Structure formats: structure tokens, C-alpha cells
Amino acid sequence: MVTSKCLALLLAPSFLFTALVAQSNSDERRQQPPFRVEVEAVNVLVAVHDKKTRKFVTDLSEEDFEIYEDGVLQEITNFAQETNLSLTIALCVDTSASVKLKLDFEKDAAIDFLYSVMRPIDRALLVEFDTGVTMLHDFTSNPNDLVRGIESLKAGGGTSLYDAIYVVAEQKMLGEAGRKIVVLLTDGADLTSQHTFEEMLRMAYQAEITVYAISTTRFGADIDHEGDNALRQLTESTGGRAFFAYSTKQLASAFEGIDQELRSQYNLAYVPANKARDGAFREIKVKVARGNIRMRHRKGYFAPLQTGS
């Protein structure tokens, strides 16, 4: 059940996006023929690394890539190396009763992540989730603002992991442009969400977020394989990664890897050859004309729905 705290969050002004139309232009607009966007470009962020050295490959050109939608080759309309663009980050920390003994680790990990990855051009917000979902701090470019919220976290209640991702994706990320990432610190065990995994994943696709997860299941408790599998599926589907660290020391290399990946991505854009606006899932597959490499990118998207005649 969504708590009153969660409900207040969902109704907060910062979680609403309202389009304002100037009344003075309404008559003129009614006289003009309606403008309809028939197709939208699809943007796919791709991270490429060498299988042997594990180093990121950053010397590829547009000609090295092919992108397929549902098995059909698409024409790449825009290509760029995203080495220095700003990041929009949502840091989501699990404060449920199941992580009570691991909360100090989560706090340290969250703080280390902010100081390792955030730059002055980046923005981040802080969300905690237990039975409900609460935004502790809206977007800021100052990690110190978020650290104070992290240090105040206390554990208790259920685990609404899927709700947390759904709310952040729908209410904060849909209205953002550029590279959008969600970082989870959790044991992956969802117990109290109103949204299903499928609903959450669909919203993550629509918001075009990349999810990175830092699991706490290896810290002093039995491993939750179901939670692990959910984190793997979520992160791999959105083009991110899940980390299962056994100690705080392992986190440093994990954060370094995330930071390098975010600064070493390629952005491929294409206008889908399939113009159907049916809301169906479209599978994306990227191929590179180079051997011994691995790639991470989101696995697809949902086509827009026709909204009128």
C-alpha cells in the first residue's frame, strides 16, 4: 500500500509536469492546420569494451555500427561519442527492514558514488524507498546537499523497489533530456510494490533510463537469488550493470567502472522504418564490425500509441 508519505510525494509540485499554453495565441492556432509528428527518433546509448582487456573501446566510427529493430537494419541518422555530456542521476536507496544491518554500507556506498561520479555539470536527486517512496532532495549539482540526506537515512518497513523506479522514471525522468541514469542500492527483494516488474520495466523503457544496481545481498545475510535475478534483468534490459560486492573495497573499482562507462558511450539515433503507432515492444540489437568486444545498450523500446484521428 502506498503510504501517506508516498502519496504526498506523488502529489508534490516538483513531481508534476504541466504544459502552459498562451491564451492569446489560441485563435491563431485554431486557424492553422494541425501538426502531427508521425515518427520519433530513437536514441540508443552503447558502451563497448574489449573482452580480454576489459577496457572501453572509444575509437569506433559510425561506419563500424549497425543497428537493427526487430531484425530489420535501420539507417543511423545521428552518431556521436558521448564523452563529456552532463548526467541526470537518480540515486535510490533501499531503507526497508531487510537492509537494516546493511544500511551503513549503503550510506557509505551512496556517498562514495556521488563523490566519484558527479561533476559540476551533472545533476542528481535522492530517493529512499521502503513501504513507500520518498524524495529526500530534488535535482542538485552539489553532492553535499545529498550527503546530508543520505546520512539521515533510517531503516524500517517493506520494500517497494519497483514502485521507486516507476515513480522516478515517470515523474522525474520523462521530462528530462540527455543521459539519464538510476543508481539503486538494494538487496533486490521487492515485497510491497503496487507496480509489477513488467510495469516498472515498461516505464523505464519509456523514460529511456539506464539502471545501475549495487546489491547488498552479500553482506551478512543469505543471498536472495530472486532479487539478484531481478536486478540483473532490469540492468541488462536498460543497458546498465548490476554489481554484487562483498566488501566496501570492491565498490571503488565498481564506481570507477561506472564512471568510465558513462564517459565512453556512443549515441546512435535512427528513425524507425516501422511507422506503426501500436504501442508494441520493438527489440533493438546493435552490431559492431570488430571482434572480441562486448556491448551494453537498452534492449528495446515501446512504440508510441496513436492518440486520435
In short:
By secondary structure, this protein is an alpha/beta fold. It is 29% helix and 28% strand. The strands form 3 sheets. A 6-stranded mixed sheet has the order 7-6-5-8-9-10, sandwiched between helices.
How does this model look, in words?
The chain has 2 domains: 4-10 and 84-262, von Willebrand factor, type A domain (Rossmann fold), CATH 3.40.50; 42-83 and 264-302, no CATH class. With 309 residues, it is an alpha/beta fold. β2 (65-69) and β3 form a beta hairpin. The protein has helices at residues 4-11, 26-31, 103-117, 143-151, 161-173, 197-207, 225-238, 248-262, and strands spanning 42-50, 65-69, 72-74, 76-82, 87-94, 123-129, 133-140, 179-186, 209-215, 242-244, 265-270, 281-288, 293-296, 300-302. α3 packs antiparallel against α4, α5 (161-173) runs parallel beside α6 and α6 (197-207) runs parallel beside α7 (225-238).
